[in-house]
Each structure stands twice: as C-alpha cells, then as structure tokens.
Specification:
100 residues; mainly alpha; 85% helix; globular
Length: 100
C-alpha cells in the first residue's frame, strides 16, 4: 500500500510537470512538438475508442457518434499523451527517491 501511495504521488508530480510543459510549449509556439506528443497517444486512444462500446463514449461526451468525432479523438489523444509523459516522469522520480 505504501508503494502505491508513493508511486501515486510521483505520478501526480509528473502530471503537474507534463501540464506545465504543455503550457510552456503553447506559450513558446511549439505546436509541432505538441503534435508529435499527441502522435504518441494515437494508438492507445484509437484502441480505447474501438474497444469500449459506443454508448459509453456517447454518454461520456454527450456527442452522438462520438467514436467518429475528430474533436473527441483529438482530446483523447492529448489526454493519453499527457498520461504517458506523466508516467515517464513518475517512473524517474520513483526510482530516484524510493528505490535504492
């Protein structure tokens, strides 16, 4: 339980850093880097869209035919990419602080 709490704290810190990086890239105008980051989230986003039933996505987003909606796909790609970035930071922090 302690390890799970420690890793959750590291993941939350990684998520904060990933959010600051995203805001920084927007502020500097590096939208090409943001597109590359979103490209890493594309496979898992598509997998989630096709594995989970369509009524789930329609109810979650409030959009009819949400699976085919490009805005829903783009937002999900961004969320997955941010989670992947946060996970990388979390693994590094966890190894640095808690594993000897």
């Amino acid at each position: 339980m302690r390890v799970l709490l420690q890793f959750s704290a590291c993941f939350f810190l990684g998520l904060c850093i990933a959010g600051v990086l995203l805001i920084g890239m927007m502020f500097v105008g590096r939208f090409d880097w943001i597109e590359l980051m979103m490209l890493t989230g594309w496979p898992f986003a598509q997998l989630g869209l096709h594995l989970l039933p369509e009524p789930f996505w329609n109810g979650l987003t409030g959009v009819t035919n949400a699976v085919a909606n490009s805005s829903v796909q783009s937002f999900l790609q961004l969320c997955v990419a941010m989670a992947q970035t946060a996970l990388l930071f979390a693994l590094g922090f966890f190894r640095l602080w808690y594993r000897r």
